[in-house]
Each structure stands twice: as C-alpha cells, then as structure tokens.
C-alpha cells in the first residue's frame, strides 16, 4: 500500500500558459526510497514541492488531479490538494517533512532548531522535548558531534552537519514521509556519503521521495526511480530496471548521459 | 598606457576622497577646538536660562526618544508588511513612497506638521516636534527593515513552513531573528539621523530656555537653540553654540559607532 498516491496531477505556475506537470500518476511506496530524476526544468522539484504544498507560500498556482496521503491510523487516503484550513496544513507538514538543497539552520541554538517543530506541535514538557531532541540527533548521526554544545548557535556547524541537523529537525516530529530536494548538491563527497547513509537508514521509519541530479546517487540509494522530462513522467519502475533495463528510449538516453 | 591610465584614475579617486575627507576633518577639528574650549561641567548642570545646556540635551533626547518610540514600531511593521505580506502594486507603491519620503527635505516636513499640529493649536508644542521627527524616521526604518528582510534566503522561510509553522510564526521566530542585527543597526543609524535634525523642529516644537517635560508647550531642543544662539551678537552665546554643537556631534557619533560596532560584532 503506497503511503502517497499521485493521481493525474497537473500543475501550472501563475502567469504561465503551459502546465509544468502534465497528468502525473506515481505512487510513493511505504518505507521505500523513490528517486525523481530528469534534466533541469523537467518538473521533479515542482512535483516534490507539491507533496507538502510548500508551493502555497506563493499564491496563484493551479492544480488538477489528486495527491493522496495515507492516514496510517484509519488506513484511509486523504487528498491533500483539498486542504484549506491552517491547522490541516500544520498537520500535513508534520506528516510530510522536507529537506532543502542548501542547509537551512535557523538562527538559534542547535537544541532549539531540533525542538522547533516539536514546539509548533504543542509539546511544552521540558523532559519530553529534550528526549525527543536527543533521539532525533542520534537518529541523524549528529549526537556525538554536538551533544556537548546543544546551546550553541547552529550557524557554527559545518555544511554537512547543518544538513544533518535539518534532517534531525524534520525527523523529530515523526513524519510519515520525508521529501529531499537535492539534499547533497551543496555538500562535499564525505558529507554526501554520510547523508546518503542516513537516508537509507531512515527508510526503516519513514517513506522517502528524493529529487537528485546525481544519477549515481539515485542508483545507490533508491528502491524506485521515476524519470521525468518536460513535465511528463516518462518511466517509473524499480531502480535496477530503470538503470539496467529501461523500457523507454528517452530514459536510456538520459541515464547514459546522451542528454540532460 | 593601461598602467598609466590606472595610475591617473587612482590619483583622481584619492584626490576626490581627500577633498571630502578634508572638509569633514576641518569641520570636526574646528568643532573640537572651539567646542572643547567652551566646554565646562556647569553646562550639564544648568539650564539655558542660567547659561547651561542641561534642558536642551534632555529635551533633544526626549524628542528623539519619543519619535523613535512611535517611528520604530510603525516603520518595522510597515517594512515587514511590504516584504513579507504585500504583493503587487500596493506594496510597490508603499515602497516607492517611502523611498521618496527618505529624501524629502526636512524643512518641508516641518512646515507640513506646522500646518496641522501647530497652527490649529495656537503655538509651538513638543508633540508637533515628535510627530515631525517620527515622519522623518518611519521611511528610513521601512527601507532598512525591507532591505534587511530581503537578505534572508527564502529557503529559510520555506523550511519553517515545512515544519508546520504558520507564516506569522516563521516571520517572528526565524526571519526577524535572522535579520535582527541588520535591522537594529538600521534603527540606530535612523535614530542618530533624527537626533541631530533642526529643520523639523524649527517650526514645530521650537525651543525653550527652561527645563520642561510638558509636550503641550514649546520644548527645549539642542539643535534649534544652536541655530538661535549662533545668531546672537554676544560672544558668550556663540561659545555656548559651539559647545552645544560639540555635544550634539559627539552624541550622534557615539550612536553611529555603536551601530557600526554591532554589525561588525556579528561576524
């Protein structure tokens, strides 16, 4: 049972005639990593950013179709495109977390960064907060490096540490889905390796969708891969099939580096 | 050839810089020499009526302080509005108007406030002075707030929203924090700017020779008194004007330096 079901989803930015996404249908499977690949402008980031409706920060977008999110308790799907109320948005974003391309530590202490989402969710109890912060930092392989300076500013961490902090911050609220928007493209190879390892570990607890320009990365860590081109979903399959045995000519051309 | 041109332009730039700095140095040295010569502890203990400056210093600080109390929150809220909430023409209009207001001649602002806050009430009053200074301050604060917020990357806002925070929470908790040092510096520089203004006060609060905390009447002001004292024939008055100028410059300079120190301290 997929945790998210994208059904015939189309998306148009304001002031643009043609849609940036055309009738995309794609499942995000539970406890799996789904990679979205394709050349720049293919719509993969647009699709990812629709899955927690972060696009709604900038009004005027047009949607069509459905993006269904599984409610783990009731076992029912809910179309997140119907969400209008503030508290439902908060709930959606706590279920579907997001990690950005550039690390985005908030200008506050390491502890407060990780606790931010928890406090938004209404957790005030101090011991519960520090337990959850510790668990999240341990889960993001950052605890050892920062446990003695939790009250120091997060801006003093290295780029790779900042990105792991952002993952800890997203993990702390116990999301069901995590969206990664090119999470390693601003990092050096060693930090990239650490983040990749972390993402693979995280799939035991959450379902993951990741946008990446790095095809080795997609083949290393993902279970499923979706290849997109000019707003269309060209091919979706198990990652090994996409990379070893693509059905579509366009997919083959892209992964062999003939365009893109 | 290129090297010579390079040298020529370098020489020209240094020369023009020296002209500007030379005059500034001249002003500061004159102020220092003449001001310091007339400086005396009693200036801080007596009011103008007794040959001191106490009431003027206090009055100037009260006027500027109250104007800051009105201008800073209004300007900040407006700046946050046009950067974070305002969309399209309306916000653009406010931004343009505020740009124009920054460079509006201060005497015009003084005359404008005179027309609606002095003339109808039968005479100079401190409130009118505060209003005039606030009107000068608000657009400066709007511009600083606006430009400092524009430096905060949009990803930071998105990251806050992505954690389930509402827009106003993100602005309060994250965006303003990220821009805090810049905004504070801008606020201090704006304060320094209005603290030394004469023209907006000339028609509005005028000045007074006596110590006063009553804003309903003409209100003591260092700058306006400098203007008056400098026009007096007696040497003692002009010496007093020099001393007052020195104190005023020192005050403004200190606020400026604190502002600059804060920005540097950040890095």
Number of helices, where a helix is a run of at least 4 consecutive DSSP H or I residues of chain B: 10
Would you tell me the structural class of the helices and strands of chain A?
alpha/beta
Q: By CATH's scheme, which homologous superfamily of the largest domain in chain B applies?
A: MetI-like
CATH topology heading of the largest domain in chain B: MetI-like fold
Your description of this structure?
Chain A: Keywords: ATP-binding, Nucleotide-binding, Phosphate transport, Transport. Chain A: This is Phosphate ABC transporter ATP-binding protein. Chain A: Pfam families: ABC_tran. Chain A: GO terms for molecular function: ATP binding; ATP hydrolysis activity; phosphate transmembrane transporter activity. Chain A: One of its GO terms (cellular component) is membrane. The complex is a heterodimer of chains A (260) and B (267). Chain A is of the alpha/beta class. Chain A has a single domain (2-255), classed as P-loop containing nucleotide triphosphate hydrolases (Rossmann fold), CATH 3.40.50.300. Chain A has ten helices and ten strands. Chain A has a six-stranded mixed beta sheet with strand order 6-7-8-3-9-10, sandwiched between helices. A four-stranded antiparallel beta sheet of chain A has the order 2-1-4-5, covered by helices on one side. In chain A, strand 7 (177-181), helix 7 and strand 8 form a beta-alpha-beta unit. In chain A, helix 3 packs parallel to helix 6, helix 4 (126-139) crosses helix 6 (159-172) and helix 6 (159-172) packs parallel to helix 7. The longest helix of chain A has 14 residues, at 126-139. Chain A starts with a strand and ends in a 5-residue tail after the last helix. Chain B has 267 residues and is mainly α. Chain B folds into two domains: 1-38; 43-266, Orthogonal Bundle (MetI-like fold), CATH 1.10.3720. Helix content of chain B is 77%, strand content 0%. Chain B has ten helices and no strands. In chain B, helix 2 (54-85) runs antiparallel to helix 7 and helix 5 (126-150) crosses helix 7 (167-195). The longest helix of chain B has 37 residues, at 2-38. Chain B is globular and about 70 Å long. The relative contact order of chain B is 0.15. The model of chain B has no long low-confidence stretch (mean pLDDT 91). At the A-B interface, helix 2, helix 3 and helix 6 of A face helix 6 and helix 7 of B.
């Amino acid at each position: 049972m997929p945790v998210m079901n994208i059904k015939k989803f189309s998306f148009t930015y304001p002031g643009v005639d043609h849609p940036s996404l055309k009738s995309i249908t794609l499942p995000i499977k539970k406890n799996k990593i789904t990679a979205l690949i394709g050349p720049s402008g293919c719509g993969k980031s647009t699709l990812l950013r629709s899955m927690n409706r972060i696009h709604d920060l900038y009004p005027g977008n047009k949607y069509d179709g459905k993006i269904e999110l599984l409610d783990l308790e009731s076992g029912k799907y809910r179309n997140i495109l119907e969400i209008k109320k503030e508290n439902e948005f908060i709930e959606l974003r706590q279920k579907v977390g997001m990690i950005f391309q550039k690390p985005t530590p908030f200008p506050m202490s390491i502890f407060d960064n990780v606790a931010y989402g928890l406090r938004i969710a209404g957790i005030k109890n101090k011991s519960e907060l520090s337990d959850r912060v510790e668990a999240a930092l341990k889960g993001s392989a950052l605890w050892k490096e920062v446990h003695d300076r939790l009250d120091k500013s997060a801006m003093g961490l290295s780029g790779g540490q900042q990105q792991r902090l952002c993952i800890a911050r997203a993990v702390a609220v116990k999301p069901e889905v995590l969206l990664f928007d090119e999470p390693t493209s601003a990092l050096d190879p060693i930090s990239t390796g650490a983040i990749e390892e972390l993402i693979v570990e995280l799939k035991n607890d959450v379902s993951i969708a990741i946008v990446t320009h790095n095809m080795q990365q997609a083949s290393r860590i993902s279970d499923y891969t979706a290849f997109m081109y000019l707003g269309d979903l060209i091919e979706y399959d198990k990652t090994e099939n996409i990379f070893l045995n693509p059905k579509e000519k366009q997919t083959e051309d892209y992964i062999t580096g003939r365009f893109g | 050839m290129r090297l010579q041109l390079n040298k020529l332009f370098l020489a020209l730039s240094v020369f023009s810089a020296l002209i500007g700095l030379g005059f500034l140095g001249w002003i500061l040295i004159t102020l220092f020499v003449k001001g310091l010569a007339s400086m005396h502890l009693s200036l801080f203990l007596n009011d103008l009526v007794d040959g001191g400056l106490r009431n003027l210093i206090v009055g100037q600080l009260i006027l500027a302080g109250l104007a800051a109390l009105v201008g800073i929150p209004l300007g900040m809220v407006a700046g946050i509005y046009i950067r974070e909430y305002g969309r399209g023409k309306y916000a653009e209009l406010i931004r343009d108007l505020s740009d124009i207001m920054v460079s509006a001649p201060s005497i015009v602002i003084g005359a404008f406030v005179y027309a609606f806050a002095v003339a109808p009430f039968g005479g100079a009053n401190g409130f009118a002075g505060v209003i005039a200074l606030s009107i000068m301050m608000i657009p400066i604060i709007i511009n600083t707030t606006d430009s400092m917020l524009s430096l905060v990357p949009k990803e930071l806002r998105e990251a806050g929203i992505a954690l389930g925070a509402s827009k106003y929470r993100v602005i309060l908790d994250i965006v303003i924090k990220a821009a805090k040092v810049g905004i504070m510096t801008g606020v201090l520089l704006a304060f320094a700017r209005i603290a030394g203004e004469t023209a907006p006060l000339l028609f509005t609060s005028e000045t007074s020779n006596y110590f006063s905390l009553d804003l309903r009447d003409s209100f003591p002001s260092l700058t306006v008194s400098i203007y008056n004292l400098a026009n007096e024939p007696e040497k003692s008055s002009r010496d007093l004007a020099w001393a007052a100028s020195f104190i005023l410059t020192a005050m403004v300079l200190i606020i400026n330096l604190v502002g600059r120190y804060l920005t540097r301290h950040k890095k």
